[in-house]
Ferredoxin (Streptomyces olivaceus), 66 residues
Amino acid sequence: MDIGIDKDVCIGAGQCALTAPDVFTQDDDGYSTLQAGREDGGGSPLVREAARACPVGAITVSERVG
């Protein structure tokens, strides 16, 4: 799967990191980012739930084609 984080929309609420800490973290400024090596979600079943938990909809999840 492909995970996108819109840095212009993210407010740093941290709900994604709380929901799927193996995939999401927060950078030094408090904004969401992906854990190193987790650009594809690492097979975590919580990625979609983390995207839904974002209060501003900054996270998108789509299936990788091919």
